[in-house]
């Protein structure tokens, strides 16, 4: 039987995505070649931490107001999609390794941000809690800005 997602489970996964993002940006600081790269990475790291806090607050709010579990479950197609995306974005227990180069770090970060964008787009579309939907849309916009910042760094990164 496939896992049945709902708003609070989706928020729990979103918290894990942001926690892992912050962890990866911390590792990226070790391979940053210059002050500009470090400045961008520190900004992205702080935003990931802010996203984690926002999702945690929303999670607590949704849990406190949740009613009948069955009423909050997403449909079968949405569950399948979220499961596929979450599997690619979140790997619980998987240890992160320091990237070998800034280019490698940026390529992985770009892939992760793209996956996060897909995940948050679907959650914004399917969330039943309006506050959760608003939070997903706000953070989705910021994740898109992260992608642009990372791509800008990639253009200047050394091989």
Major sheet size, sense and barrel closure: none
Helix percent reads: over 70%
Mean pLDDT rating: 80
Instruction: Count every helix, treating DSSP H or I runs of 4 or more residues as helices.
Output: 5
Our Rg estimate from Cα atoms comes to 16 Å
**Oligomeric composition of the shown chains:** single chain
Which of globular, elongated, flat, extended, rod-shaped describes the shape?
elongated
How many strand segments?
Answer: 0
Low-confidence stretches: none
Distance between the termini: 45 Å
Structural class of the secondary elements?
Answer: mainly alpha
Percent of sequence in beta strands: under 5%
Question: Could you state the order of secondary-structure elements as H and E?
Answer: HHHHH
Give the gist of this structure:
75% of the residues lie in helices and 0% in strands.
Description:
This protein is mostly helical and 159 residues long. Helices cover 75% and strands 0% of the residues. The chain is built from five helices and no strands. The N and C termini lie far apart (45 Å).
